[in-house]
Write a structure and sequence with these properties.
The chain has 271 residues and is of the alpha+beta class. Helices cover 18% and strands 37% of the residues.
């Protein structure tokens, strides 16, 4: 499945062996040369109370707390698998319980929760109660002004005049492993087009260059609003397509965008 080009291998826990090594399986299936090829492996599971839980592993085998494009795919996957016919679906993730809503026009709206702004909540070095807003950040001899936000996973957003001029494959790994973020970070460069439109390019933690990043789009919208560059509702254009992000006055963030199934198949154990 994919959400504006951010693609995933989707699996059901009840259809897989109980002793599955999910980290190893993610590395195998996400390989674009020797596997299915994807930006992540997403597992649909049940909670002890019968609800739904989502887990996600990156192509390098590390587990991510959340994925905005992936969680939209997750909502459609539950419906396609006949696991629910609800239009509003609470889902437990590593970033907390999110409510997914399937709209009449085929989009999926996700209540992403509160944007977390302090260094302690983000997982940064420095005083836990302080925020990181418009601070100079340097890696590989390149300096940008960065704002950090957590949407359950850490993001560093850096506004630039032209995102296409960023050497993403060279700069991305250096900023992902920046010393400010002991658990690494998702790095985003954004270009402000207008008060309600920004363009974003992303280097995802554990995945590299991706066509889209939903939680990153949320972080970008929050960051540019806090910098006084955009309004609370903004269209975020990513290489794979557009998302609409709304940052409410109470700090809650809503993301709306599409999800699609590409194909289905079976992965033979031992491949």
């Amino acid at each position: 499945m994919h959400g504006i080009g951010n693609d995933f291998v989707m699996m059901r826990a009840d259809q897989c062996p109980a002793d599955t090594d999910w980290s190893a399986l993610a590395q195998q299936t996400c390989s674009r040369r020797f596997g299915v090829g994807a930006d992540g492996l997403i597992l649909a599971d049940r909670t002890p109370t019968g609800g739904f839980a989502m887990r996600m592993w990156n192509p390098d085998g590390s587990e991510s707390e959340m994925c905005g494009n992936g969680v939209r795919c997750f909502a459609l996957y539950l419906r396609d698998q006949g696991l629910t016919d609800a239009t509003e679906i609470p889902v437990e993730t590593g970033a907390g319980t999110l409510v997914l809503r399937l709209t009449d026009d085929g989009q999926v709206a996700v209540a992403m929760g509160r944007a977390r702004l302090s260094r302690g909540e983000i997982g940064m070095t420095g005083p836990a109660d302080q925020e990181c807003v418009d601070e100079p950040v340097t890696a590989k001899s390149e300096t940008f002004r960065g704002t950090a936000v957590s949407m359950g996973n850490p993001h560093l957003v850096m506004p630039v005049p032209d995102v296409q001029a960023i050497a993403l494959e060279q700069l991305g790994p250096a900023f992902e492993h920046h010393e400010w973020f002991p658990a690494r970070v998702n790095a985003h460069w954004v270009q402000v087009v207008s008060r309600d439109h920004i363009i974003q390019r992303t280097w995802e933690r554990g995945a590299g260059v991706t066509l889209a990043c939903g939680t990153g789009a949320c972080a970008a919208a929050v960051s540019t609003f806090r910098l006084g560059l955009t309004d609370r509702k903004v269209r975020v254009s990513l290489p794979g397509g557009d998302l609409v992000i709304e940052y409410a006055e109470d700090g809650q963030v809503t993301m709306t965008g599409p999800a699609a199934t590409v194909y289905t198949g079976e992965w033979e154990q031992g491949e």
